[in-house]
Amino acid sequence: MKPRPLLPILLLVPTVTFVLNYALFQRPVEQVLQRDDRNAGMVVRAHWRWYVDPTVLVYDLQGAAPDTRAIDVLRALLQFAYRQKDRRFSRVVLAWKGTPRFYLAGADFAELGRTYPTRSPIDTMAVIPPMVRRVDGNRAFPGRGNQPFFALQEQRLLDFNRFVNEWAGF
């Protein structure tokens, strides 16, 4: 009886999938969290959707220390986006403990990563809400119309806080 190559293949595919997800996403997100003391206490899992769909990245916030603030969650996400800025995804799912809550278009995620070193945190907090979509595809924070500049910025900062609260319960 000839040996069957099916068993080695069945073992090889999950191993390669795990190694790819770890090397491309999980290890970089761990490095981001470890290199900045302000990220202490955050736990994030990053991987392709279902671990095999390279068009969708999942950024899954698993937990955070009690003293973690919304800006800390944003900073960790932006630092990771900076590390992934040259990769292309159709979307980046923002999950909380395995449950998708929101998503960003892949191009928006890449733009956040590219501009991270030069954009102020306050500006970034104001820019993110219009980019965020709920998992059903609807905008999470619809346009605010023709408001005066400062009123619009204030509303976007409130939307940012709502976004992080709904994403991670802060």
Topology diagram in text:
Layout (H helix, E strand, L loop, with lengths): L5 H30 L7 E7 L3 E11 L6 H14 L7 E6 L2 E7 H10 L5 H11 L1 E2 L14 H20 L2
Parallel strand pairs: 2-3
Antiparallel strand pairs: 1-2, 3-4, 4-5
**Between the first and last Cα atoms, what is the distance in angstroms?**
61 Å
Question: Cα-atom Rg, whole angstroms?
Answer: 18 Å
* Biggest beta sheet summary: 5 strands, mixed
How many individual β-strands? 5
Provide the low-confidence segments as ranges. Answer: none
Which strand order does the major sheet show?
A: 1-2-3-4-5
Q: Give the helix/strand class.
A: alpha+beta
Number of helices: 5
Q: Give helix % range.
A: 40-55%
Strand content: 15-25%
Number of domains in the coordinates?
1
Envelope shape: elongated
List keywords for this structure.
50% helix, five-stranded mixed sheet, elongated, 5 helices, 170 residues, 19% strand, alpha+beta
Descriptive overview:
Helices cover 50% and strands 19% of the residues. With 170 residues, the protein is α+β, with helices and mostly antiparallel strands. The chain has a five-stranded mixed sheet. The radius of gyration is 18 Å and the shape is elongated. The chain starts with 5 loop residues before the first helix and ends with a helix. The mean pLDDT is 91.
Describe the structure concisely.
The protein is an alpha+beta fold. The chain has helices at 6-35, 70-83, 106-115, 121-131, 149-168, and strands at residues 43-49, 53-63, 91-96, 99-105, 133-134. The protein has five helices and five strands; from the N terminus they run H-E-E-H-E-E-H-H-E-H.
